[in-house]
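Hey team,

Filing this mostly as a record. A colleague (T.K.) asked me to run one chain through the structure pipeline before their review meeting, and I want the input and output archived in the tracker in case anyone asks later how it was produced. No errors, nothing strange. Just documentation.

Input sequence:
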Amino acid sequence: MSVNYSIDKTENPAPREADDLQCLPEHPLDIDNIHTIQNHLLDADKAQQMAEFFSFLGDANRLRIISALSLKELCVHELAAIVKMSESAVSHQLRNLKAIRLVSYRKEGRRVYYRLQDNHVFSLYEAVADHLDEKDSG
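Output structure:
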């Protein structure tokens, strides 16, 4: 079953029942507006890269590692203890996070310390965490 929706330009339109919805006759398009938006729209390649990036972040263990690294630079065995995973599993996740440039590392003797790559990564983490902490306003 397909449902058609009309566009109501009033500020607060009255709710409509599903049976009352219907298409309006064609309305003119603002071609300049459409072109402006098209010129600023993500290109397909970048959209694909971003989709893969966000898909990669869809892993709770990776996000917990990022959470820990947002607080302090840590080595693998510290991270493993914090997130309650094996060192091997943490190392595997860190390799993946390095591959997409979310984390970087430095060596100090035989130890390797991991940190978030840059402020962009921290800002992304913080923005999502803040968004999730907001109370539902609607």
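Quick notes for T.K.: The first strand starts at residue 74 and ends at 75. Helices lie at 31-40, 44-56, 60-69, 76-83, 87-99, 119-133.
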